[in-house]
């Protein structure tokens, strides 16, 4: 009985949820995958998914950050036949088919995360919570860091205007 109570109490804390997943992140270009630029960890909690970044060697300033639908960081040809960095990661993760970019915890893509503010030293360390997502759902998806910021809208540019992909990691 004691054991059952103990398990129940443990399950009320973070430790009952799936173990922390570490996603190694890499620079990406139109020719392929480059240097390691740190990690992002994913952990379930009773309030949602806790995402924590520990990144370096990025250009200073704001950068769009999203969960994309496929487990690949490879370059791929765009519709004009031009090779683009990490295009094989596909579009933003949108399991409810909203076809709408709305920013974190909005009513659009589930994969719309807060943009990352990279320091002058090229680093970013942030911890935030995403409701309605679990680690299990994100298996075999990818994390993408974009060249530009993200205005959390599809106007004036689609996907928040975040543009090209400069960082990528595959969620194991
Ligand atoms: Cu993206």
Can you offer a commentary on this structure?
- The protein is mainly β and 172 residues long.
- The protein has one domain (17-170): Sandwich (Immunoglobulin-like).
- Helix content is 6%, strand content 35%.
- It is built from one helix and eleven strands; from the N terminus they run H-E-E-E-E-E-E-E-E-E-E-E.
- The strands form three sheets. It has a seven-stranded antiparallel beta sheet, with no helix packed on it.
- Strand 6 (76-77) and strand 7 form a beta hairpin.
- The chain is globular and about 45 Å long.
- The protein starts with a helix and ends with a strand.
- The relative contact order is 0.25.
- The model has no long low-confidence stretch (mean pLDDT 92).
- The structure holds copper (II) ion.
- The site of copper (II) ion (CU) has 7 residues, from strand 5 and strand 10.
Could you write a compact summary of the structure shown?
The protein has one helix at residues 2-12; strands at 21-29, 32-45, 48-55, 61-63, 65-68, 76-77, 83-84, 116-118, 127-130, 142-146, 165-170. With 172 residues, it is mostly beta strands. A hairpin with a 2-residue loop joins strand 2 and strand 3 (48-55).
Question: What is the CA-atom radius of gyration, in angstroms?
Answer: 17 Å
Number of domains: 1
Succession of helices and strands: HEEEEEEEEEEE
CATH superfamily: Superoxide dismutase, copper/zinc binding domain
As for the CATH topology, it is Immunoglobulin-like
Note the main attributes of this structure.
mainly beta, 11 strands, Immunoglobulin-like, 172 residues
